[in-house]
Hints:
Elements: E1 9-13, H1 24-32, E2 35-38, E3 55-58, H2 71-82, E4 87-91, H3 101-110, E5 115-118, H4 123-131, E6 144-148, H5 152-155, H6 159-166, E7 171-175, H7 181-190, E8 198-203, E9 211-216, H8 220-227, E10 234-237, E11 259-262, H9 266-278, E12 282-285, E13 289-292, H10 298-305, E14 312-315, H11 318-331, E15 341-344, H12 347-354, H13 370-377, E16 385-391, H14 397-403, E17 407-418, H15 425-431, E18 437-440, H16 443-450, H17 455-463, E19 467-470, H18 473-480, E20 488-489, H19 495-508
Parallel strand pairs: 1-4, 1-5, 2-3, 2-4, 6-7, 11-12, 11-18, 14-15, 14-16, 16-17, 18-19, 19-20
Antiparallel strand pairs: 7-10, 8-9, 8-10, 13-17
This protein binds S-adenosyl-L-homocysteine.
The site of S-adenosyl-L-homocysteine has 24 residues, from helix 4 and strand 8.
Amino acid sequence: MHDFDEPRVFLAGAGPGDPGLMTVRTAEVLARADLVLYDQLVPKRLLDFARADAEKLCVRDLPGHHPDKYPHIYDRMLEAARAGKIVVRLKGGDPLIFGRGGEEAETLRNAGIAYEIIPGVTAALAAAAYLDVPLTHRAHTSAVAFITGHELPQKINNKLDWEALAKFPGTLAVYMGIARLPILVAELMKHGMDPETPTLIVERASLGEMRSVTTRLADLEAVRRAAGLEAPGLIVIGEAVRHRQPSSWFEQRPLFGRRVLVTRPKQQAEEMVRRLEILGAVPSVLPALEIREPTDWAPVDAALDRLAEFDWLVFTSANGVHGFFKRLLTQGDLRQLGRIKIAVVGPKTATTLRSYHLHADAVPKDVHSAEGLVELLAPSIAGQRVLLVRANRGRETLPVELAKVCTVEGIVVYEQHDALDTESDSYAALRRGEIEFITLSSSNIARSLLRSFDDTLRGRVLRGDVKLVAISPETAAAVQEFELPVEAVSKTASSEGLIRAVIERARAVPKGTD
Length: 514
Ligand code: SAH
C-alpha cells in the first residue's frame, strides 16, 4: 500500500477568480498545505481553502521580489519542500499558460524534488464562458491561439510572428497585452488583418467586477481608453467575438456588479458570500461580531449532567446548536439526550440540527422568531421543564414568555462580542463609498457596525449612496435607534430573505442611476 509517496509540492492552477472555477484537486491540496505561495493575481478569497494556520505568502511580498527575477520564489519553495512541508504554489488561471509553471517545474526537477501540476481554467476560457463568446465555432473558427502581449517589444521586429498572427485562421486570446495594445493593433493591421475584425477586452472575467468592451480592431485602443479599462485584461480578437450579445448570462444575473457588504461573523459569512458571488455581486466581508466559546462551561456541564430532568431543549440559532453539541460530544455521545424533545426557531436551525442526525420535534411554520416559537410551544408545554440554549446576549422575549407557562432554565453555549475591524480593507472600501448595500443580519450586528459610523459614513447612508438592508423588523428598529434610514427589510428572517431584499432594491435602483 505504501510504496508510493505523494509529492509534497504542487504547482496548482487557481482558475480565473471565482472559487467555483478552481479545480477540486487544487482545493484538496490547498486544504493540506503548510505553505501557500500565491501570485498577486490570485484572489485572497481562495486562500480560505487553506487551513487557518497554514503560512500564506504572496510572492510579491517576498524579500527581493522583482517580477522578472524569480529565484527567491524558488528558494522559498525548495527550502520548505526540503523541510518536508506541503507546498502549494498557487497560480492564477492555469500554471502552464504564461504562469512560468514550466520554469518552476524545471527548478524542482533539477533539485530532485517530486511535484504535481494541477491544471486550471485559464483566463481565455473564463472570458469566453462569462461573456458567452465561443472560442471556436463550426461555421467559421476552427483554431484558438493563446498569445502573450508581454514580449511584444522584444519581438517587434520578428516579422514572422506578426504575419502568422495576422493570418491566424481563428481566435486570438492575448494575455498581458493591454500596455502594448496600440503596437499590437498596428502590427496586426500592417500585416493584413482586417480593421473591421471584431475584438473585445475583458478584465476580471468570472467575477462580479467583470468589465468589458467590444468593438472593431481599428478602434480597440480608443474604446478601451474611453471605458477606462486598465491592465490586467484579456484581449480577444476574431470572428468569434461577433457572437457577443449586449449582455451575457452572467451580466444578466440580478446582482451583477453590485457591491454588497456581509457583516456576519466570519464563520457564517462564507455561505452568504458564495450565494452573492453566484448572483453576480461583488461581496466583501466585514464581521461586526465575533463568536467565542463561553468563558465558563461549568453551568453548561451542570445542565448536561441533568438533561434527563428536562422535557424540551430549545435552540434559537445555528450557533447555539453547534455550541451545545460541541460541548456535549466532548463528554459523551448523543444517547445523553435521552427522550428529550427538541424545538428550533426556524428551518436553518433545523438543518443544522440535522447535521447532528437529529430531527426537530417543533419548528414554527411561518414566523421564525422568538414570537413564533412561543406561539407554537406555549399551548402544549404547560408545567413542563425547558432548557433554553442561548448566547450571552439576546432578546429576553423567549425566556420571559415561556416562563409564564412552564419552568425555563437558560444555558449560554456561545458568546457574541462586538468585533469590528475599522482598519480592514472592507471598512476602507465602505468609507470610500465603494459599497452599495450593507446587509445587517441581526440587531447586535447593526448596533456594532452603526456605532462606528462617523459623519462621512452617516452622510453616505442619509444620501442613499449606501443602503442598509435589515434581516427583520427588530433589526430595522435597531438601525432606527441611530436615526438612519433602512432601505429594505427582509420578509423572512434568513440570509436568503436578506439577499432577496437586496435583489428587489437593486432592481428598483439600477446600477449607477442614483
Ligand atoms: N496563468 C494565467 C495567466 C497569467 S498572465 C492564466 O492561465 O489565466 C496574466 C494575464 O492573464 C493578465 O495580464 C490577463 O491578461 C490575464 N488574466 C488572468 N486572469 C484574468 C481574468 N480573470 N480576466 C481577464 N484576464 C485575466
